[in-house]
Amino acid sequence: MQTVEPLAAAIGLETEIDERLAIDADPIGILELLATGVEGSLVICTHARIVRYLLKTLGLVDAGAIRCRKGAYWVLEGPDDALTSAMYVDPGKVGRLDHSPRIEAETVTRAAVLDMGSNSFHLMIADVTDSGDIRPVHREKRMVRMGAELRRSGVIPEALCERSCEAAVELAAAVREHGVDRFFPVATAAVRVAGNGRAVAKRLGKALEQPVRVLSGEEEGRTVFRALQWRLGLGAAPAMGLDLGGGSLEIVVGRGAEVDAAVTTQLGVVALEQSIVESDPMTEQQEKKLREVVAAELAPHLGLLAGGLGCEAVVTGGTARALAKLLGEGVAKREPCAPLPFVSRRVLRRLCRSLVETTHEERMHIEGVRPARADLLPTGAVLLDEAAAQLDLRGYQICDWGLREGVLLDAVLPA
User: Do 77 and 71 form a contact (C-beta atoms < 8 A)?
Assistant: First the structure.
């Protein structure tokens, strides 16, 4: 209501509240609203999740190009009742109220991020505009499981270090091929906590011929939270962001661009799976142990995270996205599911139960399961389910942006 009040006053019209635009409403309602035959122009103010669902359903914009930055808007146009075009207007490109929107030429930087995590190395090359639009050009990854030995020995073995350097060099070859202007190699949990992490980072930097930045847990969490905020337009309400990786789970609570609290835990999917799950399928005792470890690891941080308990929660990371992919259309029929779906506790618990009872071979035959993550899915489901219980979350919004996009935003946009 506050968003549209100035416009309503300027044109002498009253605003109307419609429950079909509520954040927890069935998103099909907005399609009904558009079909009511309103004469002339219609201004709709709602949540980013509903806007994304509308744009995807109408098929006017590729899912990867849908943006919902705070203060921006979409103009949908077409003859009669048919909508045939959609134009995004960024808040930094809007002229005065009595002028037409002016879209200025944007500066584009081609940048690459090499994200060297505990489970895998990911390279993303993208064209980044000065308004924060990230247009992927090339993606590539290698599964290295660099953190596999950490819980046993506390260090990254020589053979694994050598393999990691080879993987980094292979991925970096694409940086030269795509004419990258800026290159950002970063390392996270495995290198951060390994007893020989500093030496490993130095070797990786030497192999890449560029220093590797080792992110602290708090730095990683804050960087991811900025990406989540930018991608979803979380606004000024308290929000919680979770970055689920192979070696750690970062949790951040904030409002808008401000971060109120950031913690890092040892709740990595790979680390937990390798240290607790000893049979296929997982036993009841192993699941119970997993839940106990998650609860014990989160307990010391609940006071610091109190401002986000029960709030809107967003999760990113390869395992979280893989779990959401398994739900597919089944979630869309039950939840307010946009291109970036919301997964309720009820649905997550049901998925958790089904995965825990399956063997690795059975999971390999499930549509949408990738071989590299088949062993991690049950542990990931249990971890997220128990974390939701401890943090009093009603579910998770899944986000396709994370650390790599956050690194690009930090590098290209002002703080």
Answer: no
User: What span, in angstroms and rounded, lies between the C-alpha atoms of 85 and 176?
Assistant: 37
Res. 91: pLDDT tops 70: no
Residue 131: CA atoms inside 13 Å, Cβ hemisphere, count? 18
27: preceding bond cis by omega (within 30 degrees): no
Q: Check: CB of residue 327 under 8 Å from CB of residue 341.
A: yes
Task: Give pTM, 2 decimals.
Answer: 0.75
**Alpha carbons 243 and 188: distance in angstroms, whole number:** 12
Domains, the chain, in order of start with CATH, read: 5-93 (no CATH), 108-214 (3.30.420.40), 218-404 (3.30.420.150)
Cα angle 31, 35, 36 (rounded to 5 degrees) comes to: 125
Could you list the beta-strand ranges (E) of 37-107: 73-77, 85-89
Question: 310: pLDDT confidence band, cut at 50, 70 and 90?
Answer: confident
- Residue among 379, 387, 411 at smallest CA distance from 119: 379
Shortest CA distance to 359 belongs to which of 381, 373, 374, 379? 374
CA 411 – CA 17 distance, rounded (Å): 40
Is 120:245 a contact under the CB 8 Å cutoff? no
3-state secondary structure of 339: coil
Rounded to the nearest 10 degrees, what angle do helices 284-298 and 269-276 cross at?
Answer: 130
